[in-house]
Please model this.
Amino acid sequence: MNAPDRRVIVALDLPDAEAAEHLLAKLLPRKPFIKVGYQLFYAVGPAWVARKKEAGFPVFLDLKLHDIPNTVKKGVESLGRLGVDLLTLHASGGSAMMEAAREAAEKTASGTHRTRLLAVTQLTSTDREMLNDELGIPGTVGEHVLRLARLAQRSGVDGVVCSGHEVRRIKEVTGSGFLAVTPGIRPAGTDAGDQKRIMTPSLAIKEGADFLVVGRPVTGAADPAAAYEAILREISHTDTRSGHA
Ligand code: C5P
Model:
């Protein structure tokens, strides 16, 4: 099983390099696993990400790729060359798109390192009414999430991003080796913010999550280092359900 500090991913939902560096300086000497999403990536660009990798930070690039297979393949080749550890794409792009992404990730692998691909199944902002009436997809959101998780697995994707409430069911249908990366994490007593289906770090790990994504409980804390260390301590005392990451 990975060490706690390799399982907790700090979401750097920050506007620019200065804000990101300021936060990371507070966490020193730790080099946390960092998640870079649209906001920061579009501000700092790939060179900043490559420098973070060189400095020893594991990186999750949350860019949710979705396009025709060839375009996604070329995008993954560029991002794979940065050496990022995790990268998201939309499962609704279909099997050919996901297979092309996997091919590109293999092509840019170096030694034992390969960018692992994570599928976004259905965004948590989607409710049943939107799924059925706007997107024209019948059934429940939960059924659709499972269908897309299975499709992602068959297409060579390494795991999914999902809520802690979905991990158990997803692992039941995909097996424990398929990664579950879980946002919506809130240590007991912290503010939920706009997250609705939240879970504590230890419960998410017990449910089988391989990685936890934590943003505001760390980045918005009065003492980010203390908040981060408390999460690491909490999960280090938790038995995992699947027993590995
Ligand atoms: O600040 P907070 O802990 O809520 O941040 C969670 C992070 O996880 C954000 O970067 C958010 O975009 C991401 N995320 C999420 N829910 C999803 C997918 C991603 O909160 N379903």
